[in-house]
Design a protein that fits this description.
Order of helices and strands: EEEEEEEEEEEEEEEEEEEEEEEEEEE
Number of strands: 27
Oligomer: single chain
Bound molecules: calcium ion
Number of helices: 0
Distance between the termini: 88 Å
């Protein structure tokens, strides 16, 4: 069945129960909401279209009009000028028959994933009259100059619909109203009220020309500057043995939950580089080996996906001892070894004649012409007649 949506629906006094209803907006054709300085949030008004027009707006939800059911989703595009979107306000009321919660999403692609989705209880809305409704969500890092969308919808239940106030006079120049009918494609092909006979929604057409995109929904967005990660913590051993590898943990958290990269300078003029990206708050494990005895200052900083960097954070580590085969923790072999090979995490050698004893484990004996493989993490010692190799490193 071809659905024809009379354009009068668009310009309809929609919050009147589709008929005789109340109209309690102030006198005059428009109402501009004053911007108040009383701001409980640490943000500022960014984008807005607050030129309301009594009774004018788009329905959001499922409505029955002249025995035909229409399901509407409505969106407004905007271009933020602040790096972080903190909250929005929309000029919305509910029809007396609305029973389901109102849902508002933020998207960077009108058909794409929700960057945020907020459900507002049906009771929060004034019946058959518009009012400004504050919609708060976790702050979102946005790209200044790119187009984003405020998308409104509700559950598909018969006669469950809201009205979102709008204006056909294109007061907002960086975006426009968008509509999706019956989950069909989004269109910004909205029309002025003179085009009343156009059945544009029936054709589900998407118009690329902006000639007729005159409608804007009543909205306000609030924003602030993007902040650098607000903490970077380093943890790990305070001292160790030169030549051994140690693991350090780094945690950076970002106020906007952006991914973070971590730059590490190990203080020994070796590798200095960015690691990551990691999720905000994720523990990153990064390994390093200092070759020489000494005190070292690890310096690290973090940056978010927007490039905002923290200050340097320092962590001091001392390598008081050198790696030595005389260390009791070393594993070594005396004997005759034909070859010694370190591979992966183990050491393999062929013993021609090796006497060995593993202290503390009660093992001793003689291997002859055998192939021996030990895990590189092995701790203990092998002692035979001739020193031929040190397990965890360099053949001697
Ligand atoms: Ca917020
Ligand atoms: Ca516009
Ligand atoms: Ca950030």
């Amino acid at each position: 069945m071809k659905k024809i949506l009379p354009i009068c629906l668009i310009g309809l006094l929609i919050l009147c129960g589709c008929g005789a209803g109340t109209q309690v907006l102030p006198e005059g054709s428009s109402e501009t909401k004053p911007v108040t300085n009383c701001n409980m949030y640490d943000d500022d008004l960014d984008q807005y279209m607050t030129e309301t027009l009594i009774g004018y707006g788009f329905p959001v939800g499922t409505m029955i009009f002249e025995n035909v059911t229409f399901k509407f989703q409505v969106a407004q595009s905007f271009i933020p000028q602040r790096e972080v979107l903190t909250r929005v306000q929309v000029y919305v009321g509910r029809n007396s028959s609305a029973t389901q919660d109102f849902i508002l999403a933020i998207r960077d692609n009108i058909s794409g994933e929700n960057l945020a989705e907020i459900t507002v209880d049906v009771e929060e809305f004034v019946i058959e009259n518009f009012s400004w409704v504050e919609i708060e969500f976790d702050d979102i890092a946005v790209t200044v100059g790119e187009t984003y969308y405020i998308v409104a919808y509700t559950a598909d239940v018969a006669d469950n619909w809201y009205g979102w106030g709008g204006n056909p006079d294109n007061f907002y120049l960086d975006g426009c109203a968008w509509l999706s009918l019956d989950d069909g494609p989004w269109t910004n092909d909205s029309y002025s009220s003179e085009n009343q006979k156009h059945d544009w929604l029936a054709q589900n057409q998407v118009q690329t020309s902006r000639v007729n995109d005159t409608w804007d929904m009543c909205f306000m967005t609030f924003g602030r500057d993007n902040l650098a990660p607000d903490s970077l913590e380093i943890d790990g051993p305070a001292e160790g043995v030169a030549g051994e590898e140690y693991t350090f943990s780094f945690i950076a958290t970002d106020p906007e939950n952006e991914g973070v990269e971590i730059y590490v300078d190990w203080g020994d003029n070796t590798t200095m580089q960015w690691h990551g990206p990691y999720n905000s708050g994720e523990e990153a494990f990064i390994k390093h080996t200092w070759d020489d005895i000494g005190d070292y200052v690890i310096k690290a900083k973090a940056k978010d996906a927007s490039g905002h960097e923290t200050d340097w954070v320092e962590y001091i580590v001392t390598m008081p001892r050198d790696k030595s085969p005389t260390s009791l923790q070393k594993t070594f072999v005396w004997g005759q070894i034909r070859f010694l090979r370190m591979r992966d995490n183990s050491i393999t050698f062929r013993a021609v004649k090796v006497h060995y004893r593993i202290f503390g484990e009660g093992l001793s004996g003689v291997y002859k012409h055998q192939r021996l493989t030990f895990d590189n993490n092995y701790i203990g010692s092998l002692r035979t007649h001739w020193v031929c190799a040190i397990f965890d490193g360099t053949p001697v």
